[in-house]
Automatic annotation (TrEMBL):
Pfam families: Lectin_C (PF00059). Residues 118-138 are annotated as: Disordered. The keyword Metal-binding does not apply. This is Perlucin-like protein-like. The gene is LOC102803695. SUPFAM superfamilies: C-type lectin-like (SSF56436). Residues 1-26 form the signal peptide. Keywords: Signal. InterPro entries: C-type_lectin-like (IPR001304), C-type_lectin-like/link_sf (IPR016186), Ca-Dep_Lectins_ImmuneDev (IPR050801), CTDL_fold (IPR016187). Residues 31-171 form the C-type lectin domain.
């Protein structure tokens, strides 16, 4: 009897957790069979990665101008996605394993080939691997909300401290979104 109660409690906790994640998403973006879920909940990069995996996906894979432009346009056109949690959104790019070699989580080590996405706002070219707050430097990448609202942000790439808490973008393949199109 006790065992059954424990199992029911665990199942209820999992359902509530999944329900809160699904409801926490702001307006989603569908492209072909790929679903992008935008979360304004502040998480570290690693916690965001874990949440995306829990949902059956990964942190977003943005490795082309067309993907970057589509996501950037979506962020600027959906009002409640502006003023992001933590001034940016985590996606799957990082150089945790090898400083200066940017790869995407959940891809088997695919390296960044789209270099035009890096920010040069405020006279600072990114990535800059600042070590001001952490001697290990900045190893995780966000879509940076610069310049800040009320101007229209560019949402370019910026390396940041993985322990910072920000919003995040999950990508779920074969989601049943439907339609054609392909973000590379």
């Amino acid at each position: 009897m006790r065992h059954n109660i424990c199992i029911r409690l665990v199942i209820m906790a999992c359902v509530l957790h999944l329900s809160s994640l699904m409801n926490a998403a702001a307006t989603d973006l569908c492209d072909g069979d790929t679903l992008y879920k935008f979360f304004k909940i502040k998480k570290t990069w690693d916690s965001a990665r874990e949440e995306c995996e829990f949902l059956g996906g990964r942190l977003a894979f943005i490795n082309s101008e067309s993907t970057h432009e589509k996501i950037r346009s979506h962020l600027n056109s959906v009002g409640n996605l502006m003023n992001s949690a933590g001034k940016g959104y985590w996606f799957g790019l990082n150089d945790i394993d090898n400083e200066g070699t940017y790869t995407f989580v959940g891809t088997g080590g695919i390296e960044l080939t789209y270099d035009a996405g890096w920010s040069s706002e405020r006279g600072r070219q990114q990535p800059n691997n600042s070590m001001k707050k952490d001697p290990n430097g900045q190893d995780c990448v966000q879509l940076w909300e610069q310049p800040p609202s009320p101007q229209t942000p560019k949402w370019n790439f910026d390396d940041a401290y993985c322990s910072n808490k920000k919003g995040y973008i999950c990508e779920i393949q074969n989601s049943g979104c439907g339609g054609g199109g392909n973000l590379g």
